[in-house]
């Protein structure tokens, strides 16, 4: 530890000199900044304040993603995951060490003047975009057709005809402006100007607070300023913890109904051919577009999370370095971190690891990393557990100017503490380390370094054994995942002759668990490590009918579907919280063998656009018959939070089937479904029944079957 102490003194001295130099430059740089041509970016993502775990996308290693945004500052936003319940963390507001630099705390563009890469310095504003276009197609134009190497593409907003494009350096920006100026695309003509970087959201919010006469932040609207740090983090991370579990389930059931009700209305508007059927369903199902099951409760209510990402920062009440969660997002103007020992969704073993890592941080003498000034070392602690007893930790730091010798001592200190010191009692089985400074111009990141113990953790799901890499996605509630997968399998309705497409398959949990019910399983996953896990898991569990592709689903889907010719095909999609790329939906629509599709959404409100695209009328873009929602099952995997999984069964449109059902004369295979349709009472409670078993709503549906043909043809031509 002696080397660490010496290095700490050297770092403090160097940073004081750097800050003095920066303070002398700020005024001049600020004036130059104001004169730069172009508009200020308007499309800062709306902050949701919730930590999100990405499925390598769905489970986003959200603290690391916010770390990336703080270095490549596009607003430093925290992204919400539909199912994530944990907040990010850093330092205390207003807490600075000597030499930290007041200039950086008042200049919202200070991050652009550091000797660190940020694509905000090389941004353009692209105007004249077509009225209807997809971001995916725009990216393809920029990076494949025109070979411009765009780093980020950010639309200005819904129905706005401009976007912000960021590049990795000035030559790339200059070339892009030359190529795009006057370029014609989809009958639209582009115009291009340079764009200013977006303001650092934390500095901006701090300035807004300082300008208020009452000196209160926006959080005061909810009375947060009067709450203790413990109360604030409880409200932020587990906002439903004060309710009984039955009350939590009731709220989530209502939320699911609200989402599906709106989806039904949007679907009827988008596809006139379905308008009458949607109405027919709604009058029988309390406004719902399809059958909706009661929400399925989690088998485990407290301590269910098997993965959490804890931030390292300062507790504003104690002034000490703390390992925990942020009480609010960076964009909301917060860097303070609160302890987590009282939170209901975190298991006791994980809390013990946090306490022991906090000891390591405090005894090191190195400060937590500040996302505002980019000083400090300690960033984040990731903890993963499993039902098999595995306990994996990942320590993340900012290397600053630490020498290799000091970094080696730091790694050794962590290992010794959890294998020989007081931390040995918690039973850690794997230790990983990551020195993360910032995104490089090439987008490369330092890989995880294995320090000690197992290279993977092992988990059991529905009697199957799964190997999980440190960064790979796994549902954060293992017992809840078992319930979820059982319902997914039931809705898929597989048989020995069918093929299962497992889209966004992760480590292969769904495919392996359902492999015995079907002839073949074809999976696709973006993250190579997860694909290796999926293949290993198939072999370990004796699954010989499963094949997994590496890459983006939209790029691999064609090859997967080529193996499904003339076979009954069922797809299960479990995508990132933002949903599927539109090209994946288009590919699924074109697969004529695909009869059923089970969509698993951790953020159904964000996935509604996918639901709508599955049900759009046939067109040049959306070829193949559309899908209709048949049944939805909400499953609670995240007690004490507002989040839940929503599983929806979509079936390929079958006009004869639904006509017979509406007439009250279903085919034998649809009898079971027909019996579950709520009946209508005569008179005031609903349309009157006709002798043939249909009703007035059905009659109108059949009489007006072609009422939307003209609009549908117009949509198809578009």
UniProtKB/TrEMBL annotation:
GO biological process terms on file: methylation; RNA modification; RNA processing
Catalytic site: 602, 602 (nucleophile)
EC number(s) recorded for this UniProt protein: 2.1.1.35
Reactions the enzyme catalyzes: uridine(54) in tRNA + S-adenosyl-L-methionine = 5-methyluridine(54) in tRNA + S-adenosyl-L-homocysteine + H(+)
Sites where the protein binds S-adenosyl-L-methionine: 475, 525, 574
GO molecular function annotations of the record: RNA binding; tRNA (uracil(54)-C5)-methyltransferase activity, S-adenosyl methionine-dependent
SUPFAM superfamilies reported for this sequence: RNA-binding domain, RBD, S-adenosyl-L-methionine-dependent methyltransferases
Region of interest (Disordered), residue spans: 1-111, 204-233, 673-718
Enzyme class: transferase
Composition bias, Basic and acidic residues: 1-34, 42-91, 204-219
Keywords: Methyltransferase, S-adenosyl-L-methionine, Transferase
InterPro entries tied to this protein: MeTrfase_TrmA_AS (IPR030390), MeTrfase_TrmA_CS (IPR030391), RBD_domain_sf (IPR035979), SAM-dependent_MTases_sf (IPR029063), TRM2_met (IPR045850), U5_MeTrfase_fam (IPR010280)
Assigned protein family: Belongs to the class I-like SAM-binding methyltransferase superfamily. RNA M5U methyltransferase family.
Protein name: tRNA (uracil(54)-C(5))-methyltransferase
Organism: Petrolisthes manimaculis
């Amino acid at each position: 530890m002696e080397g660490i102490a010496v290095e700490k003194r050297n770092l403090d001295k160097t940073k004081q000199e750097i800050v003095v130099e920066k303070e002398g430059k700020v005024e001049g740089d600020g004036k130059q900044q104001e004169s730069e041509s172009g508009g200020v970016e308007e499309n800062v993502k709306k902050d949701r304040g919730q930590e999100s775990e990405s499925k390598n996308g769905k489970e986003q290693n959200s603290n690391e993603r916010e770390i990336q945004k703080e270095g490549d500052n596009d607003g430093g936003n925290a992204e919400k995951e539909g199912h994530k319940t944990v907040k990010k963390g850093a330092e205390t507001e207003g807490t600075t060490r000597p030499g930290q630099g007041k200039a950086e705390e008042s200049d919202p563009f200070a991050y652009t003047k550091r000797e660190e890469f940020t694509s905000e310095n090389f941004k353009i504003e692209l105007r004249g975009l077509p009225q209807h276009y997809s971001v995916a197609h725009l990216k393809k134009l920029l990076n494949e057709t025109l070979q411009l190497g765009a780093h980020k593409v950010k639309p200005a907003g819904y129905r706005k005809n401009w976007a912000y494009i960021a590049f990795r350096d000035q030559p790339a920006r200059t070339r892009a402006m030359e190529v795009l100026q006057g370029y014609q695309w989809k009958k639209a003509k582009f115009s291009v100007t340079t764009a200013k970087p977006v303001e650092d959201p934390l500095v901006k919010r701090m300035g807004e607070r300082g300008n208020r006469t009452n000196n209160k932040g926006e959080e005061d609207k909810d009375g947060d300023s009067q709450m203790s740090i413990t109360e604030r983090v409880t409200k932020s991370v587990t906002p439903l913890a004060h309710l009984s579990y039955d009350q939590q389930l009731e709220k989530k059931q209502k939320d699911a109904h609200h989402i599906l009700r709106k989806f039904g209305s949007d679907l009827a508007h988008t596809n006139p051919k379905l308008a009458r059927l949607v109405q027919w369903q709604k009058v029988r199902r309390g406004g719902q577009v399809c059958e909706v099951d009661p929400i399925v409760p989690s088998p485990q209510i407290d301590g269910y999370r098997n993965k959490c990402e804890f931030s390292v920062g300062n507790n504003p009440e104690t002034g000490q370095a703390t390992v925990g969660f942020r009480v609010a997002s960076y964009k909301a103007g917060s860097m303070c971190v609160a302890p987590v020992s009282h939170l209901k969704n975190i298991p006791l073993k994980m809390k013990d690891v946090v306490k022991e890592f906090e000891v390591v941080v405090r005894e090191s003498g190195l400060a937590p990393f500040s996302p505002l000034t980019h000083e400090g070392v300690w960033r984040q602690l990731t903890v993963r557990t499993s039902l098999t007893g595995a306990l994996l930790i990942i320590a993340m730091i900012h290397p600053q100017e630490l020498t290799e010798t000091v970094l080696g001592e730091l790694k050794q200190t962590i290992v010794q503490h959890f294998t020989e010191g007081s931390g040995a009692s918690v039973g850690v089985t794997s230790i990983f380390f990551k020195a993360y400074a910032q995104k490089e111009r090439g987008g490369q990141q330092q890989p995880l370094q294995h320090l000690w113990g197992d290279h993977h953790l092992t988990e059991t799901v529905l009697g199957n054994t799964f190997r999980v890499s440190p960064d790979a996605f796994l549902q954060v509630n293992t017992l809840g995942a078992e319930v979820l997968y059982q319902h997914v399998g039931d809705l898929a309705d597989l048989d020995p002759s069918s093929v299962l497409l497992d889209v966004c398959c992760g480590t292969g949990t769904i495919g392996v668990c359902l492999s015995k019910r079907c002839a073949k399983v074809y999976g696709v996953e973006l993250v190579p490590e997860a694909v290796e896990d999926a293949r290993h898991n198939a072999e370990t569990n004796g699954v010989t009918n499963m094949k997994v592709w590496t890459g983006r689903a939209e790029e691999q889907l064609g090859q997967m579907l080529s193996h499904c010719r003339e076979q009954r095909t069922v797809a299960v999609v479990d995508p990132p919280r933002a949903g599927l790329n539109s090209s994946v939906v288009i590919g699924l629509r074109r697969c004529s063998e695909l009869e059923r599709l089970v969509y698993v959404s951790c953020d159904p409100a964000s996935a509604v656009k996918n639901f709508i695209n599955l049900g759009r009328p046939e067109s040049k873009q959306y070829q193949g018959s559309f899908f209709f929602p048949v049944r939805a099952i909400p499953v609670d995997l995240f007690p004490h939070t507002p989040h839940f999984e929503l599983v929806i069964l979509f079936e390929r449109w079958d006009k004869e089937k639904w006509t017979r059902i509406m007439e009250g004369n279903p085919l034998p295979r649809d009898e079971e479904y027909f019996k579950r349709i709520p009946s209508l009472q005569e008179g005031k409670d609903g349309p009157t029944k006709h002798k043939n078993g249909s009703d007035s709503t059905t009659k109108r549906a059949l009489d007006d079957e072609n009422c939307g043909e003209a609009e549908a043809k117009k949509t198809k031509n578009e």
